[in-house]
Amino acid sequence: MTIPNYNCRGPIPFGSTGRRAFLQTGLAGFASLSLPGILKLQSRAAAPVNTSAEKKAVIMVWQPGGMSHLDSYDPKPDSGSEYRGPFNLISTKVTGLQFTELMPRQAAIADKMVVLRSMRQSAGGHPAGSMQLLSGDPDTRDKPKPRYPDWMTVSNYMLAQQGKRQNPLPSYVGINPPLEYNGPAYLGDTYSPFVVSGNPNLPTFSVPNIGLTDTDELRRLGRRSTLRQKLDTLERSFDHARELAALDEFETQAMTLLTNPQTKIAFDLNREDSRTRDRYGRNSWGQQLLLARRLVEAGVDVLTTSLSGPLCGRVGNWDDHAVNQHVFDAMKFRSQVYDQAVSALIDDIYQRGLDKRVLVVVTGEFGRTPKISYAASTGAGDASAAAGTTQPGRDHWPRGFSNIWAGGGITTGRFIGATDKRGEDAVERVSGPGDFLATIYHHLGIDYARTFIKDFNGRPTPIVDHGKAIPELIG
Questions:
Q1: How many Å from the N-terminal Cα to the C-terminal Cα in the chain?
Q2: Where are the beta strands (DSSP E) in 153-264?
Q3: What is the dihedral of CA 240, 243, 249, 250, to 10 degrees?
Q4: Strand ranges inside 323-381, DSSP E
Q5: What does each C-alpha distance from 429 to 119, 369, 412, 418, 435 come to in angstroms?
Q6: DSSP letter (8 states) at residue 308
Q7: pLDDT attached to residue 214
Q8: pLDDT tens-digit profile of 160-204?
Q9: pTM beyond cutoff 0.90
Q10: CA-to-CA distance for 344 and 223, rounded, in angstroms?
Q11: Per-residue b/e over 116-125, b at no fewer than 16 CB within 10 Å?
């Protein structure tokens, strides 16, 4: 299988929408619903969520553009100079497991994680690769919009079928989340995340319009909610016993988020001990992951956050083509912050007794080419030489890559799967997108094998078409 060499600039950096994106789910969305949007609120799931066990949660840490597996979790020291990076190997707390020297903190807590070294999918572009892994779409073509809803939206939708949510916080929150290549598709924007944008490390950071206490503002919101009464006139147009009931729930959740003071507390990082904030790192990534832990501890079920922006290097992502940035300088540039933030999150999950309930997954859409490429830089910046300077890079590589898992009640302190001697192909315990999705759904108590959701044409569509939960990653 030959993977095209995409000399792209990678995903667009996050945070460009600013604070206006914070209320993607809430009254703003409610007030702008069209009749087709309202109709999409109709319940369409064929299998319920298992509610008998303790309520579970997932934190997915996304590496947009794809991390080099050879320069992190799956080094190949004997692969030759055309493949091997410049980094030394270090031992971890797990016998037989080595990382590169860029990951000393994670190496020290490797007994609290599982490294999956044999993930693969078949799409060479960022859009299709992201859609494959996060929604199970088998198409290898890059599309402008997703055909299937991603697992985060599906999970939010399935959890909503349990009935009225008691917790004032949203079920699904994205902190600078991966939205550019994924989304709700035929489920509709109702089940998109509550989006938190910006840098949580800034002293001025806040999530606006949650937990309001201003009397005049509360009164204004109360008047706005009378929009519901106007929409009642539409009830003859559709089954109001079902759709309007769902709309009522949507409105209630939005009002609760805006008016309940507990929501403001949950998002307030200043309530964390300063030593804890230091442990995660006083930077955007560190504070994103601390906020993620804080929110799942407060009752959020699905949390996604993307490690992107200036901390990645010149192009703001992990897409380390030689035209973008010097792959080895970029890995070194971002590694200290990345290693500290991820290790702090995993360690904190265990220290706070969340390791049975909360599953942590760290991944990108693919890895990077084992064989090093060389090209002229298109511009100077962090981790990139001046324009025209030849520098090394690694391109897109879906045939074999790594991700890490922690918490979720799984047996940790091991690695599963393997790639070949050059890191080119997953050859042992190969896992695909369906297995990835099934594992996450299983943790959340969603019966992935028997759950179908109707698409735009009314066809029942499985949430996992091919794949089973990875046995070693089941708690």
A1: 35
A2: 172-175, 194-196
A3: -130
A4: 358-363, 367-368, 373-376
A5: 9, 20, 17, 7, 11
A6: -
A7: 53
A8: 988 878 888 999 999 999 999 999 999 998 899 999 999 999 999
A9: no
A10: 44
A11: bbbbbbbbbb
